[in-house]
């Protein structure tokens, strides 16, 4: 039947017939008058692309032009046009599409919203950016919890949430000039595109020489996983070991934070995080660095606070919010209060050379807590609220007036024993107890808001993030828990572990936790290691591990600006680490601040209080009951920042581990 039909007589198979059909169509297209003037791309001035590149790259050079061409080529070949516009917005950072961002928010696509936002700003740029990223992370995990409990998503709540985001976007200085798309004449835009394409046509048809004058096709151009980090990777520049740089090194992972120290050699180890299966890199102790080593009192400014009492060890120490007074709690359940002059001028000029007054009211009262019946239950904790001090030493919680030292009230008669408490917004208190429970209570209404259960042993510390609106608890079970401060649901938890062994430490007590001023990073202090996590996910970002001679760690705290971490050890050393790199800046030895004749193996700092306004000033509470305030010499900007005038070198005695 097919061969009898004259039109089908030449048909043999599908492939050859389609080839003949294509040839026929080409002839028809060429003969079509309507299409004849559209078959050849118009030739226009080749200098347009160079002019465009010069506008984009003012320091225009041949290598820059080629990199840009490769990137544009890759960009156009990788992307389908549906999302090209928005990726172009992210890559060029010239326009923040608030409507596009709203679509992600209202549909609950939090990962995409975070990715789009991160192209224009990051969490450390300003408070507006920090709040936006924090809120995205918080909502992501709140909705994950809701999905686990099979609760429906609330579109109306997301729409209301976007209104808050919109205000932050409009006030954010990183985004303000990117909210309106620049007007451009359409014909001019079309002309630019045509000229670019005209410049490219010969390159697309022919082959191009590479650095070795070998011909390669455009499909062989290097590809980059994230164009924002591409320009320095496109050249096959060898690294220090002589290997070409892998393009994948430009990948911006969201699963971990990387603290890199280019001045230190690192040896890689593949030690998985207990929960997130990430890898770690260890900083070995064998690296010799020039670090500031302070041995003598003349090498720093130090002040022994006046004290005529013979109380026990200083177990708690805290500055007021303005830094005008300091409160200490001793192992014998007594308190001491030192006051500096309170006028504004003296506070601005204040340094450790200005000796404070050991305050004693006219009543001669002493602020003393109830003591636990069993000495082993004598766990001390306190908190400041204005001119009132909430304090406990294993017995009832006492409220003292800091003006008169009078006991205003007592409550929470054991059992259970209060082991930690902090103030929360809306006049709430969070109390941790030795039975592993946490109570959220309003003293004004005397109503309990929530009772939280998640630990298997006593609560050791509580920390609250205002920007995330979450409460984090630590326990003697080597566990951290994150709680949503709205519905008081448990968002996540994580057990302490060592990057070096992958195991939970034998001593399971997490002694202290503290939020960084960014309200995201969380410092966790264990006697054998210090860890940094990101809330609310508890993503494990870094770890400090001491040399055995310094064990145990007794305390650690952020400076008020969050730029350094102060660490005290039983060896008597106080170490100052850079927060971002975990580099050891400075070591202050016991001989630099302790009184001559008192130095012994039993003398060391138990607690550190960071001054709330002066990032380089700290107070140390010692085992002999004395308190010392120290800061760098007046000629120094900060701890460990001045170049050395001698040849002292000091080997790092802490290893640090940062996730990659």
From TrEMBL:
Q: Which UniProt keywords apply?
A: Repeat, WD repeat
Q: Map out region (Disordered) in residue numbers.
A: 236-274
Annotated Pfam families = TPR1-like_2nd, WD40
All copies of domain CTLH, residue ranges: 94-152
**WD repeats by residue range:** 452-484
Q: Does the keyword Repeat apply?
A: yes
Q: What is the name of the protein in this document? A: CTLH domain-containing protein
Species annotation: Citrus clementina
């Amino acid at each position: 039947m097919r061969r009898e039909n004259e039109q089908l007589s030449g048909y043999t198979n599908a492939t050859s017939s389609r080839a003949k059909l294509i040839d026929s169509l080409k002839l028809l297209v060429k003969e079509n008058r309507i299409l004849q003037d559209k078959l050849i791309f118009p030739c226009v001035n080749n200098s347009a692309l160079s002019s465009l590149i010069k506008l984009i790259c003012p320091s225009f050079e041949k290598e820059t032009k080629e990199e840009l061409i490769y990137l544009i080529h890759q960009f156009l070949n990788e992307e389908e046009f549906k999302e090209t516009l928005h990726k172009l917005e992210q890559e060029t950072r010239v326009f923040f599409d608030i409507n596009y961002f709203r679509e992600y928010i209202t549909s609950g696509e939090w990962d995409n919203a975070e990715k789009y936002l991160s192209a224009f700003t990051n969490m450390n740029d300003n408070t507006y950016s920090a709040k936006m990223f924090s809120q995205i992370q918080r909502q992501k995990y709140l909705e994950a919890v809701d999905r686990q409990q099979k609760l429906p998503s609330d579109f109306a709540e997301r729409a209301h949430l976007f209104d808050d985001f919109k205000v932050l976007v409009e006030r954010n200085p990183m985004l303000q000039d990117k909210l309106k798309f620049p007007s451009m004449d359409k014909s001019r835009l079309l002309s630019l595109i045509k000229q670019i394409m005209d410049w490219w046509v010969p390159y697309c048809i022919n082959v191009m020489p590479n650095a070795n004058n070998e011909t390669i096709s455009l499909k062989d151009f290097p590809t980059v996983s994230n164009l924002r980090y591409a320009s320095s990777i496109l050249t096959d520049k060898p690294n220090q070991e002589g290997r070409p740089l892998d393009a994948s090194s430009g990948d911006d992972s969201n699963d971990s934070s990387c603290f890199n120290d280019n001045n230190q050699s690192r040896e890689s180890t593949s030690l998985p995080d207990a929960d997130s299966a990430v890898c770690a890199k260890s900083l070995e102790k064998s690296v010799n660095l020039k670090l500031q080593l302070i041995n003598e009192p003349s090498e720093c400014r130090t002040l022994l606070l006046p004290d005529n009492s013979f109380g026990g060890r200083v177990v708690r120490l805290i500055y007021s919010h303005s830094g005008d007074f300091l409160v200490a709690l001793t192992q014998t359940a007594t308190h001491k209060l030192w006051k500096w002059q309170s006028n504004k001028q003296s506070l601005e000029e204040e340094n450790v050379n200005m000796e404070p007054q050991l305050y004693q009211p006219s009543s001669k009262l002493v602020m003393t807590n109830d003591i636990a019946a069993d000495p082993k239950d004598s766990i001390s904790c306190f908190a400041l609220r204005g001119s009132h001090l909430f304090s406990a030493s294993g017995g009832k919680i006492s409220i003292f007036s800091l003006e008169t030292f009078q006991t205003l009230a007592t409550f929470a008669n054991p059992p259970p024993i209060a082991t930690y408490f902090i103030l929360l917004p809306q006049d709430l208190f969070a109390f941790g107890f030795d039975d592993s429970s946490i109570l959220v209570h309003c003293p004004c209404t005397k109503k309990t808001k929530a009772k939280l259960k998640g630990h298997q042993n006593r609560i050791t510390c509580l920390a609250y993030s205002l920007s995330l609106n979450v409460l984090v608890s630590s326990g003697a079970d080597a566990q951290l828990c994150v709680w949503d401060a709205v519905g008081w649901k448990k968002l996540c938890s994580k057990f302490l572990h060592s990057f070096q062994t992958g195991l939970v430490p034998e001593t399971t007590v997490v002694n202290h936790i503290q939020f960084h001023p960014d309200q995201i990073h969380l410092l966790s202090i264990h006697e054998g290691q210090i860890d940094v996590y990101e809330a609310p996910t508890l993503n494990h970002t870094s770890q400090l591990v001491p040399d055995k001679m310094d064990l145990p760690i007794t305390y650690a705290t952020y400076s008020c600006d969050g730029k350094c971490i102060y660490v005290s050890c039983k060896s008597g050393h106080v170490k100052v680490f850079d927060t971002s790199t975990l580099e050891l800046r400075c070591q202050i030895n016991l001989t630099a601040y302790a009184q001559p004749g008192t130095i012994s193996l039993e003398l060391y700092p138990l607690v550190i209080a960071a001054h709330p306004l002066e990032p380089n000033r700290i107070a140390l509470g010692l085992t002999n009951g004395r308190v010392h305030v120290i800061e760098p010499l007046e000629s120094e900007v900060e701890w460990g920042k001045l170049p050395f005038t001698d040849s002292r070198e000091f080997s790092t005695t802490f290893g640090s581990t940062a996730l990659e």
